[in-house]
Amino acid sequence: MQDQGRLEAAKRAIIEKRTFEAAKKEVSKKLQTIVRYLGRPVVEQISNVRNLPDFWELEENEDDFRALMADEDIREVLVGYYFDGLKCGINLTIQTLIYEDKIVETKAHYNGYPVFCESEGRLEGYAPFDEWENHLNMFYSAAIPVEQAQKTEAKKISREINKRENKEALNKFKRIWGI
User: Fold this and answer.
1) Most buried by CB count within 10 Å: which residue of 25, 113, 150, 152?
2) Neighbours of 109 (CB within 10 A)
3) Dist. CA 43–CA 81, nearest whole Å
4) Phi, psi dihedrals of residue 121, rounded to the nearest 5°
């Protein structure tokens, strides 16, 4: 009984130490920046069609199948991002899951082993060692310029939209009041 209490205390101490270390090194922030700006979006197709016909019936009538596939009620929803470092010769994969525009889970694997897992803001696992963290920092420094360029472009587009909307509102005001 006493040994089990010591074991639990040791587990808690390791978890606290790893949580503090991951926060200090900003591992989660780096992973999310890499996967968002160097990775690819993961998209899910959602259909508003409630009553799908039986698959075997569709197979018999290809016109119904084509009509179903051309349905305008199908939309795409962003469910996460995925990054694979193998294109650079480094076996580092990063995945994020998004639910209602919030990052719910972030996972990283290095050489096939899990090295980081954060779920709903809570650290589930973190394996700190220099080899994978050096690669993490390398990819992060490559992602920063991409992030800055995309943010600059988004601001530029936002300013143009605001100018256009202001101009349209002013023209509408002039038409209404005869100015």
Assistant:
1) 25
2) 16
3) 9
4) 80, 5
Please give the structure tokens belonging to residue 134: 């050096």
Name every residue whose Cβ is closer than 8 Å to that of residue 117 and which is 6 or more positions away in sequence.
Answer: 105, 106, 107, 108, 123, 124, 125, 126
- DSSP strands (E only) in the chain: 40-47, 74-84, 92-99, 102-110, 113-119, 122-126
- Both tokens assigned to 135: 């690669």
Output the CA–CA distances (angstroms, integers) from residue 24 to 56, 63, 128, 132, 152, in the order listed: 56, 59, 12, 16, 28
**pLDDT tens string for the chain (179 positions)?**
678 888 888 888 988 999 899 999 999 999 999 999 999 999 888 776 655 555 565 555 565 556 655 555 677 888 999 999 998 999 999 999 998 888 899 999 999 999 999 999 899 999 999 999 999 999 999 999 998 998 999 899 999 999 999 989 888 888 888 77
Check residue 51 and report its DSSP letter: S
Quick check: helix, strand or coil at residue 53? coil
CA distance 148 to 151: 5
**Global confidence as pTM:** 0.72
Distance, CA of 81 to CA of 101 (rounded, Å): 12
